[in-house]
Amino acid sequence: MEYSEQLPLFPELFMFSQFSPSKLKVLQKCPLQYYLKYIVKYTPEITPTNDTTARDAGKTLHSILELAVKGIELDKAVSASKEINEIDEAFWEANVAPHLENVETFLTKLEKFNNAHGIVKIQTELKVGVTRDWKKTTFFDPNVFMRGVIDLLLVATDRAFIIDHKKGGSSEWGLKNYMDQLNVYKPFTLALYPDIEFVAAGIHFIEEGAVSLEPDFSPKEHIVKSIIPLIEYNVSEAEKAVRETGYFKH
Fold first, then answer.
1. Residue 47: phi, psi to the nearest 5?
2. Neighbours of 134 (CB within 10 A)
3. What does the buried/exposed string (b/e) look like for 30-40 if buried means 16 or more CB atoms within 10 Å of the residue's CB?
4. Which element (helix H / strand E) includes 65?
5. Does an H or E element contain 202, and which?
6. Is residue 62 within 8 Å of 165, Cβ to Cβ?
7. 9 neighbors 246 (Cβ within 8 angstroms)
8. 23-32 own/partner pairs: CB under 8 Å, 24+ apart
9. pLDDT greater at residue 90 or residue 161
10. Beta-bridge mates of residue 152
11. Partners of residue 148 on adjacent β-strands
């Protein structure tokens, strides 16, 4: 049977809306996966046996960083994260404990960075939603156009810094592969803080113990006139490709 017979477009049942950086990426790379995951919400009868070690370790390290950045002592953040994520001792020692030194180093560097740049507000695991005109709304608002979670947002008087935690990867690769995601968070920041004039973003590579930050800020005008239109174009083109094909092709 042809894909067009299996997976026809039903415009009245399907809305190309409520995107996130990861959801848009799926639609661009594999419309069939998008259809199965986000439209029919298909659950395979046989659960794949892929290794979830990296995912679970990353989730736990994110949790530790979130609590510690909020001011909870590191040892208490570690204990709470271990309990919250239901991590057994063997998994902990093999996949989380080896990276705690890098977490501690990051926290020390973060404190110095905040002092040097006059950071007045710190937010972690920040759930953000914006409407089609890029105005702030709630994360689960039916009218949300784009949503996402900013791991760490540092706000100064007229500028802000976005940091996304990644368990793997390397600073040697640079930020190119992450900019689609990071650029979405820039208009999010403007929606939350209209007085911000400059935004920079970067990645904290946890395993490597390094942080890569953009060398230059994105001015508000650039975000509004260049970054936002590019995001909207990418959404439009991804939708257009599926509609022109007439079905969700792999």
1. -75, 125
2. 17
3. ebbebbbeeee
4. helix 53-69
5. strand 198-205
6. yes
7. yes
8. 24/180, 24/234, 24/235, 24/238, 25/180, 27/238, 27/239, 27/242, 28/234, 28/238, 30/250, 31/241, 31/242, 31/245, 31/248, 31/249, 31/250, 32/3, 32/7, 32/248, 32/249, 32/250
9. 161
10. 124, 163
11. 128
Instruction: Give the CB-side neighbour count of residue 94, counting CA atoms within 13 A.
Output: 8
Which residues touch 217 (CB under 8 Å, ≥6 apart)?
Answer: 159, 198, 199, 200
Whether 239 and 25 have beta carbons less than 8 Å apart is answered as no
Query: pTM for this structure?
Result: 0.89
Give the tens place of pLDDT for each residue, 183-201: 999 999 999 999 999 999 9
Instruction: Report helix angle 21-29 to 228-245, nearest 10.
Output: 40
- Phi, psi dihedrals of residue 126, rounded to the nearest 5°: -85, 110
Which amino acid is residue 154, in one-letter code? L
Q: Which of 2, 202, 236, 222 is nearest to 109 (CA)?
A: 202
Torsion angle (degrees, nearest 10) of CA 234, 240, 243, 246: -90
Position 232: which residue type?
E
Dist CA 223 CA 230 (whole Å): 10
Q: How far is CA 49 from CA 44, 46, 57, 61, 146, in A?
A: 12, 9, 17, 23, 31
Q: How many CB atoms lie within 10 A of CB 123?
A: 16
* Distance, C-alpha 103 to centroid of its chain: 19
Question: What are the tens digits of pLDDT across the range 91-150?
Answer: 999 999 999 999 999 999 999 999 999 999 999 999 999 999 999 999 999 999 999 999
**Is the model's pLDDT at 3 over the cut of 80?**
no
